[in-house]
Amino acid sequence: MGLGIWSMHFIGMLAFHLSMEVTYNTALVVISILPALFASGLAFSIISKPVVQKFEVIAGAVLIATGIVAMHYTGMAAMQTQAIVYYDAVLWILSVVVALVAALLAMFLLHYSRDRHGFSWSKIASAALITIGVSGMHYIGMLAARFEASTHHVTTAPSMNSSYLAYTVGIGMALILLIAVLSIRSDNKVKSLLDEYNRQFQSIIESATDGIVVTDAKGTIIQWNGGAQSLFGYNKKEIVYEDVRLIFPEARLDPSQYVEASITQKTLELIGSKKDGSQFPVELSIGSWETVKGNYYSLIIRDITDRRTNEEKISNLVYLDSLTSLPNRRLFNDRLRSTINQALESKMVLSVLYLDLDHFKMVNDTYGHQLGDQLLVKVADRIKSCIHKNDTLARIGSDEFVLLLPNTDDEKTQTTAQKILEMLSNPFQLNNEAVFITPSIGASLFPADSTDAETLVKNADLAMYRVKEEGKNNFQFFTSEMNELIARKSKIAMSIRKGLELNEFSVHYQPQFDLETEKIIGVEALVRWHHAKLGTISPAEFIPIAEESGMILRIGEFVLRTACQQTKDWQDAGVEPFRVAVNISARQFSQGNIAEVITLALDDAGLAPEFLELELTESIIQGATSAISKMQQLKAMGIHLSIDDFGTGYSSLSYLKLFPIDTLKIDQHFTRNILIDSKDAALVDTIIQMARNLGLNVIAEGVETLEQLTFLKARRCNQAQGYYFQKPLLPEKIEELYLKVKTR
């Protein structure tokens, strides 16, 4: 534009004829180019800014006008002739005004049309106004000039002839026009490519469901797609040229973070803020590129609310109990190990409580598992009300809970345990019915009992089992003696199988007497175990262990087969036939093939079924429907059935009329106390009378004195067994005893 203004001026000057010779000062001609170039460059620099204020448009117009005027009158000063130039002040001012007005109008038109692509009348009008301004200023300026001949000698600097100037300007303008045409054509191609790339870029980012935001190095938003609008709620006009911290208010987003994230290709997880003020988690991927105008950053933003929700659900499945939403075993162990590490550093104490609900299985069997689950939730709520927010309560089994009490000594531990016992002593309401449940609680202390997480839990568990063994519904600390007991239990459990293989188990028989005739009417088979290293082990010790390990099935079958074979051997030796009573555990009875096992034992021994009596515990009655079916099957085989330890279980008396039983066995606990406890005496009397009324046989266990025997005879009890008569004997002793009694 500057060269165009300059060329117009000098071509116009060459068209101006004077009556005298005119040459041009070469230096001034060249200098006259500079104002036009400088003014045009500054003006277009201003108008090309991304954001242009009105005062900047006016400043650009003033610069163009100043450049035109300065170029014109510098060019006039370059004329060398035998004349003095005078200017009419009014016309001179008018030339300046014309240049300024034309420049203002042209600049404003150019400003408002700069975002329009392709042909635009406003651009044509802007060019025309510049042309009018330059031409008008030139010819008014020439009109303002008055040349008067001078007789004084004019000193001339190095100059050029007007013809050379004409050729120079003409050739220069041709080159300028050629360069301009080529430049415009090249710019149009580049602009067309850029427009195509921009359209492709816009199409890509607008079709993306993720939010895409472009910022400069200062964090100013310069690009915003539809995905970002959907995420944050701002439209493009509202957010462009705003700070990116508007959508990430709590994040410290600065160029250093951008660079680090873009180089390492890491993603950032931030909290985004929507237009309505709500917040949500986002994942941010950052890319960067450099330009001559500085660094730019692309932010790809993804809403990870669903992912966070799913992660939380997965975490809950992994670390929380699905029923009570309490921590599960895995999370509890993590917290316990972490708390132990802190305690080791700070030298503080902590405790672990292991809690198991007593007789919870009965609740499930009575009310169903759904109500049982409701009870567990209520139990968890009550326990939580007894502990502090820093404590951890976890459910690690069906009815097993474990507590972690940080910074708690033995006194505080006992206080917490007592609170739990008292809280759970109140009844729970299930189906409008009051249900009572009690806990057994064991505790271990850190570091006194162990510094290892697994051992602390194990020791608390041992203490809880000791509470179970001693009557339940209580609390007890772990002691070192418990380790010795568990070690013995483990050794016994592992030795049972080997003991059976090495024939360490034997069967003794305790005679049963008719109280009227005082003759032997049968025997009860009782298992005994003499361990090679531990010596004689009481059934009271190894039977519960065998039931826990499942080895009671092997022991039970051994006793059954041995008793059947021995009874047959006695019969073959000429002993008058009598029944042998064999205890059947609940676990044996629950087997689906119990009838087959018994039939096979009888067949292998060759013993008739009527000489076998099976003693069943009251716990079998808990599965009443299946129990009746199996008992009827056994009864149909001709086997005698009795209920052992009657009165100690939780059965309903109504089952007595349903079960096909022959005998009730009064538990030895009642028998031993009939002379010292009136209630026990009343219970024994009631059982005997009830059995007689139901047509059942009654046998009393644990008879040890003549007074007890006299009491039972007076109540018309049918049979008895106990140390008063005989202790359990080896098979050969039974044969001797029978023959001895028979000869009396």
TrEMBL record:
Tell me where in this chain the PAC domain is found: 266-316
Checking PROSITE patterns in the record gives: EAL, GGDEF, MHYT, PAC, PAS
In terms of domain of life, where is this protein from? Answer: Bacteria
Domain (EAL): give its ranges: 489-742
Q: Which InterPro entries match?
A: Biofilm_reg_signaling, EAL_dom, EAL_sf, GGDEF_dom, MHYT_dom, Nucleotide_cyclase, PAS, PAS-assoc_C
Domain PAS intervals? 197-266
Pfam families linked to this entry: EAL (PF00563), GGDEF (PF00990), MHYT (PF03707), PAS_9 (PF13426)
UniProt-listed SUPFAM superfamilies: EAL domain-like, Nucleotide cyclase, PYP-like sensor domain (PAS domain)
- Per its UniProt record, what NCBIfam families does this chain match? GGDEF, sensory_box
Protein name as annotated: Bifunctional diguanylate cyclase/phosphodiesterase
Question: What is the organism of origin for this protein?
Answer: Planococcus faecalis
The lineage is: Bacteria, Bacillati, Bacillota, Bacilli, Bacillales
